[in-house]
Specification:
321 residues, mainly alpha, Protein BPS1, chloroplastic
Length: 321
Amino acid sequence: MGRSVMPCFRRRSFLADDADAVDDDSSAFCASLADGLRRLEESLAKDSISLKWSAEVMSLLKKMQAELLAVVKKSKLPITYGAEEDWFDQYMQETAALLDFCNMFKSAISGFNRYCMIVDLAIQILTKDAPGLIDIGEFEFERLERATGKVLDAKAVRETLGLADTITEWGNKKDEKGIAVVMLAAKTTMLVMSLLLFSALVSPISIDVGGAGINCSPPELKPCLEALLSISDKFRERFQEADTEFGSVLFEHKVMVEAARELKGQAVEAAGVERLKASSAELKRGVEVFEAMVDEVFGEVVRGRNEMLGVFRDGALGLGS
């Protein structure tokens, strides 16, 4: 049984009957994020778990980080220089966790690239040799190894899940409450979507995206949490439908495995090799697109962190002057 990653605000100022809890910028951020999540849900409802969908997830996370940075910069809220946690600490925690996930996804991409090289080598040998002389069963390229997931799972996921316990409210002003809601939306979205990709790309994990937190959330946040819950449910359905025998639930990998299975136990024919070659090319394209989006998210997060560290530095220098 996985643990819930839906945190819940308990202060009365964030209850649903407080209609004037947050500012317009924070409401717009939540509305934009909810709209993007609904599009991801619609995409997953139509298709299988794929590298294409994974790239769409990363695109949403990039957009979310850019909008998050814009909101926190516009708010011009002061930073607490001391032991008390504030919006700056929340921002740095969320972005650090997302960088960790990007690094894990890059590791998974390296595994895909090695896998594609093995497939290409097999295709070259199959193309050179006379039909029937090579048994496709000799090539163990059906299995996409994800052994690194067992190493990465324990540390990174445990630490990231801890973020759900650190989301707190601070301040009583509308803009302060708004930033708290924005940080909750960003952290929860980053956590849920990254863990879903982790399950698809690195190592299957059991995460309970319980709906209990929705009832005690600010009204601006409810559409985001509802969309995350729907995506998680649909992802679980797709995961259960997929063939995990060969270590991956990705559609592109499934197509390649099917092409390889058609060649097993048969004389290798040109048509079969061409199908395998086409499926390999499709997997490569998917990996390239996904890797490009991971790089873009990483760059966006680093840019935001550098800007916020500049704000922190300027504030600290101002205190000392």
